């Protein structure tokens, strides 16, 4: 049996719970212990999603945050035209990027700044073992991607800096990410620096003065100018916000 067929069995639970952005809304049964999803690895995909939807989102620190669209109906977003993409579903405040071959993603369709901004969101890997947050953003006249959970599940970094992707440059980090757990991700881009935090801990702080910023060659370029994608992984997203910041 092929990998995609195996995954399709696991995803059948999602189709019961999430009817898609254009279909009739469905109701999720109440979760019994939403905050403790990560401590129960034997939960089914359906149980993970029930708990994820029930767990309240924490507010962002600081002032000036603006919500990007509406996760209940993808207002302000569109599906990224990746070949082999999985289904994008939205309901109960979550956006679900179902497993693609290899990418599934969404693009922001409204105006977005080129620099001096910060973006934040909550992201969760539901199924799979690769990146559940590929956040592509403008950096002046170019673009880059913050990769969270890539290259087998644990890599964090920026693709690309001076032609070196997230596994090869000075932003490379390795972390342990649990399926079924929300992670608070923030990325700040200014004229001189790219910074990123996961759950409040700084993981990237790199000076980009005089460096060549670019995207890794390939389909991820479809995420320009601002997009979110997952690689061979089902990801849940929510609470996507941005604010302008000073240098």
- The CATH topology label is Jelly Rolls
Largest sheet: 8 strands, antiparallel
Shape field: globular
Mean of the pLDDT scores? Answer: 86
CATH architecture: Sandwich
- Report the C-alpha radius of gyration, rounded: 17 Å
Could you tell me the number of beta strands? 15
Fraction of helical residues: 10-25%
CATH class: Mainly Beta
- State the assembly state of the protein chains: single chain
Number of domains: 1
Q: N- to C-terminal separation?
A: 52 Å
The percent range for strand residues is 35-45%
Q: Which sequence of SSEs, written as H and E, runs from N to C?
A: HHEEEEEEEEEEEEEEE
Which ranges are low-confidence, i.e. pLDDT below 50, for 5 or more consecutive residues?
Answer: 1-20, 22-40
Q: Can you count the helices?
A: 2
CATH superfamily: Exo-inulinase, domain 1
How would you portray this structure in words?
- The chain has 247 residues and is mainly beta.
- The chain has one domain (3-244): Jelly Rolls.
- It is 10% helix and 37% strand.
- It contains 2 helices and 15 strands.
- It has helices spanning 3-17, 45-54, and strands at residues 66-67, 77-79, 88-91, 94-97, 103-108, 117-128, 133-139, 142-150, 155-159, 173-174, 183-189, 193-198, 201-207, 227-231, 233-244.
- Strands 1, 3, 4, 6, 11, 12, 13 and 15 form an 8-stranded antiparallel sheet that branches. A 7-stranded antiparallel sheet has the order 2-5-14-7-8-9-10, with no helix packed on it.
- A hairpin with a 2-residue loop joins β3 (88-91) and β4.
- α1 (3-17) crosses α2.
- The termini are far apart.
């Amino acid at each position: 049996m092929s990998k995609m067929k195996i995954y399709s069995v696991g995803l059948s639970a999602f189709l019961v719970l999430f009817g898609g952005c254009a279909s009739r809304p469905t109701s999720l049964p109440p979760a019994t212990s939403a905050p403790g999803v990560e401590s129960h690895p034997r939960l089914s995909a359906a149980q993970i999603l029930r708990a994820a939807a029930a767990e309240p989102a924490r507010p962002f620190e600081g002032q000036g945050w603006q919500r990007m669209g509406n996760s209940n109906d993808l207002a302000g977003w569109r599906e990224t035209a990746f070949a082999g993409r999985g289904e994008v579903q939205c309901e109960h405040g979550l956006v679900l990027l179902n497993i693609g071959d290899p990418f599934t993603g969404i693009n922001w369709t409204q105006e977005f700044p080129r620099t001096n901004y910060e973006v934040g969101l909550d992201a969760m890997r539901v199924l799979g073992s690769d990146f559940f947050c590929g956040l592509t953003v403008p950096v002046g006249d170019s673009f880059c991607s913050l990769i969270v959970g890539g290259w087998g599940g644990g890599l964090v970094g920026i693709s690309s800096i001076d032609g070196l992707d997230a596994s090869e440059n000075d932003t490379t980090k390795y972390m342990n990410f649990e399926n079924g757990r929300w992670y608070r991700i923030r990325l700040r881009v200014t004229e001189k620096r790219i910074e990123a935090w996961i759950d409040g801990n700084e993981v990237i702080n790199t000076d980009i003065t005089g460096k060549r910023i670019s995207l890794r060659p390939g389909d991820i370029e479809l995420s320009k100018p601002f997009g979110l994608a997952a690689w061979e992984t089902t990801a849940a997203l929510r609470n996507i916000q941005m604010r302008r910041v000073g240098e």
